[in-house]
């Protein structure tokens, strides 16, 4: 697990590498994250009493609400899921079930636990994978066993009970000749030296379509996984795939790791991780807030709030890995609240989001920082992309300031979509270079203020055009 002992200041410093501004919001989430660590240091009795202080982020789109929550989860490698409040409907209506957000979180926790468990057994799994690769690269004849029909039938039933394919049984023993042994030793040495990485080999993998066939949304809402039920009575369908050795090794390592790890312990740890470290980000929560207008949709909106309430308050949700409690999960609500306000939410739900942080509109200076300062900023991304065509592109400071000025102006005159406006402007600005780049002979291109003004400045000045293009 990643380091979860970071102080609030260290958390904010990490967030500053990716998100510009919004110091108040960063401070609030850093404290909420640190409080989770503090809680885990207390006695078991005290841990049960302390519930996480959920946050409500208020601000226009594109100012960093989702990115703050997502980066927060990455800092401590916590299970994280983002859901849209608008996709849920009141019980009795056709639509998503609010408990599905908890099941998605547990799935995320299981994947995190698997990745960590795989790292622990990778050395052993890699040895087994390499041994299997040698056998695949230098195949030997299988020994034919003579068995009576009754014995074959018993073996078939035993294979079904173990979830194995009877067709693959009794074929493990090989007829090894001295020639085969010598070839395998030679191949093993070449494999160790990395001389066969691009050679193709045929391996067996589980048919991915079989997994998809067992997925049923209605059953998943009840915490039932049809795949688990079917796999206990039906053998896994295997298909053959031809891949390079380096890809085959990773597939075989994954297969070997599955057998080496303890699934029961993994699922137990995953549910505990989801319960104590899970973060659920509920976006567009303002869209389910009621307004003064009474219409048929309001009943359903308030119904969604009442369905979300017990999840946020703390309840038990059935998942395919067992019951999961939501008492200590951290919930982060988010919304623009342009046409409504937090007080339009039902009082019970308001009380479950005690920490309110308002994110500021982005200014011209913020846009300049977004373009240049963060790790892998937009300017760095486009420079790298265009660089793949052997073109070195350089932005002058004046050009960057002009782009920021246009973004601020268009956001002010039309809808305010925050930093997302920069994506639109940069795509329009670099459209010709991105299109003609592979065929251009020019090695260096400098984007200056005049180029920016010619390409997008005039569009921004025309309100009718900017509304549709920028």
Describe the 3D structure.
The protein is α/β, with parallel strands linked by helices. It folds into three domains: 8-109 and 269-358, P-loop containing nucleotide triphosphate hydrolases (Rossmann fold), CATH 3.40.50.300; 121-262, no CATH class; 364-460, Orthogonal Bundle (Helicase, Ruva Protein, domain 3), CATH 1.10.8. Helices cover 54% and strands 12% of the residues. It has helices at residues 8-16, 23-40, 44-49, 65-75, 100-137, 149-161, 178-192, 208-213, 217-221, 226-233, 245-260, 263-277, 296-313, 347-351, 364-372, 378-387, 397-413, 420-429, 431-436, 449-461, 463-469, and strands at 55-58, 80-84, 141-142, 174-175, 200-206, 238-244, 279-283, 316-319, 322-325, 330-335, 355-358, 392-395, 444-447. It has a five-stranded parallel beta sheet with strand order 2-7-10-1-11, with helices on both faces. β8 (316-319) and β9 (322-325) form a beta hairpin. It is globular, with a radius of gyration of 28 Å. The two termini are 43 Å apart.
């Amino acid at each position: 697990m990643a380091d979860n002992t970071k102080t609030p200041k260290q958390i904010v410093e990490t967030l500053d590498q990716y998100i510009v501004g919004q110091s108040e919001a960063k401070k609030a989430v850093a404290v909420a994250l640190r409080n989770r660590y503090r809680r885990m240091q207390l006695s078991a009795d005290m841990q049960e009493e302390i519930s996480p202080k959920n946050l409500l982020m208020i601000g226009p789109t594109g100012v960093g609400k989702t990115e703050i929550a997502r980066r927060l989860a990455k800092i401590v490698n916590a299970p994280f899921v983002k859901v849209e409040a608008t996709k849920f409907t009141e019980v009795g209506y056709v639509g998503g079930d609010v408990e599905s957000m908890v099941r998605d979180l547990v799935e995320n926790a299981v994947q995190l636990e698997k990745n960590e468990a795989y790292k622990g057994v990778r050395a052993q799994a890699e040895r087994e994978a390499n041994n299997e690769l040698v056998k695949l690269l230098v195949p030997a004849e299988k020994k034919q066993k003579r068995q009576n029909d009754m014995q074959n039938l018993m073996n078939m039933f035993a294979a079904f009970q173990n979830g194995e394919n009877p067709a693959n049984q009794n074929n493990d023993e090989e007829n090894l000749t001295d020639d085969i042994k010598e070839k395998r030793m030679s191949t093993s040495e070449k494999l160790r030296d990395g001389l066969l990485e691009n050679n193709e080999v045929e391996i067996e993998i589980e048919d991915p379509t079989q997994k998809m066939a067992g997925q049923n949304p209605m059953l998943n809402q009840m915490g039932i996984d049809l795949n688990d039920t079917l796999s206990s009575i039906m053998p896994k369908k295997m298909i053959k795939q031809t891949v390079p050795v380096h890809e085959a090794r990773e597939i075989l390592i994954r297969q070997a790791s599955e057998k080496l790890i303890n699934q029961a312990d993994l699922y137990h740890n995953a549910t505990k991780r989801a319960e104590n470290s899970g973060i659920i980000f509920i976006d567009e929560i303002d869209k389910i807030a009621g307004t003064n207008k009474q219409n048929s949709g309001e009943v359903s909106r308030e119904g969604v709030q009442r369905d979300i309430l017990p999840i946020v308050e703390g309840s038990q949700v059935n998942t395919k890995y067992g019951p999961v409690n939501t008492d200590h999960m951290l919930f982060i609500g988010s919304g623009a609240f342009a046409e409504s306000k937090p007080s339009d939410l039902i009082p019970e739900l308001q009380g479950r989001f005690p920490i309110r942080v308002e994110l500021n509109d982005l200014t011209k200076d913020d846009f300049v920082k977004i373009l240049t300062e963060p790790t892998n900023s937009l300017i760095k991304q486009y420079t790298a992309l265009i660089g793949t065509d052997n073109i070195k592109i350089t932005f002058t400071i004046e050009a960057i300031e002009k782009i920021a000025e246009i973004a601020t102006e268009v956001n002010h005159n039309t809808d305010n979509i925050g930093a997302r406006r920069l994506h639109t402007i940069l795509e329009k600005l670099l459209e010709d270079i991105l299109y003609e780049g592979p065929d251009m002979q020019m090695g260096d291109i400098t984007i200056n203020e005049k180029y920016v003004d010619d390409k997008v400045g005039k569009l921004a000045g025309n309100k009718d055009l900017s509304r549709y293009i920028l």
